[in-house]
Design goal:
Layout (H helix, E strand, L loop, with lengths): L7 H8 L6 H13 L9 H14 L3 E5 L5 H8 L6 E6 L2 H13 L7 E4 L2 H4 L7 E6 L6 H8 L3 E10 L10 H6 L1 H14 L4 E6 L5 E6 L7
Helix pairs in contact: 3-4
């Protein structure tokens, strides 16, 4: 568990949950030994949730925006149905090169469709619908990612946005007023909550995980 999340509840959840598989443990170790910003690594409980969602939803196409070293990629891949696809986009060339070389060394690189470049430039080129999209990239573009991903999302598809509680600063009015990044995240949360045609829920998992579900039909009540 990351040192930022060593409160009793997070520790209890971590200790009472099924452990990481060996490949996830290897990614964790590789990241902390080789990357400049290892704190960007997804955490075990959150990754486990992604894996559970894939097992429940049985998506045919998954998209990830923000690969880093592929921890969340591996979690999304873990229960992926046969003949389904997983696409991941990473803007940083050196990061993606290191990640793919590491995945090759574990003979798993071929299981993923890798894309290098800016997501907002790559997204319009997709000709398929995605059932599940996970976004953990530059936070300033979250609103743009949401708008660009919705046309690619299948009916009842889900988009997940990471870090939307922003170290709990989004509930601090002074931070919202004075800190640009906090204000940006708060404004994104408001935008997602009020966007027509979707239902939105923020889950207080780790640093916040916002779930946006595309709703093409009116609910019964």
């Amino acid at each position: 568990m990351h040192t930022d999340w060593h409160d009793p509840i997070n520790e209890y959840c971590f200790n009472q949950s099924s452990p990481e598989n060996p490949f996830l443990q290897a990614i964790h170790s590789f990241t902390w030994k080789n990357m400049l910003n290892p704190r960007m690594l997804s955490e075990h409980i959150q990754g486990s949730l992604l894996s559970h969602l894939v097992a429940i939803m049985k998506p045919q196409n998954i998209l990830e925006i923000g690969t880093f070293t592929g921890y969340s990629t591996a979690c999304l891949l873990q229960n992926l149905p046969k003949n389904a696809s997983l696409h991941t986009i990473e803007a940083h060339q050196e990061t993606l090169f290191k990640t793919r070389e590491f995945w090759k060394s574990h003979k798993k690189e071929h299981l993923v469709q890798w894309h290098e470049g800016e997501a907002l430039e790559i997204l319009p080129n997709f000709k398929i619908n995605f059932n599940l999209i996970f976004v953990d990239a530059d936070k300033a573009n979250y609103k743009h990612y949401l708008n660009a991903c919705l046309p690619l999302l299948s009916e009842n598809g889900i988009i997940l946005f990471d870090n939307t509680l922003w170290s709990k600063r989004v509930v601090n009015e002074i931070d919202i007023l004075k800190d640009k990044d906090t204000r940006n995240m708060h404004e994104f949360n408001q935008y997602a909550c009020n966007l027509p045609g979707v239902t939105t829920t923020i889950l207080p998992i780790r640093d916040g995980l916002t779930m946006v579900r595309k709703q093409n039909e009116s609910p019964l009540f």
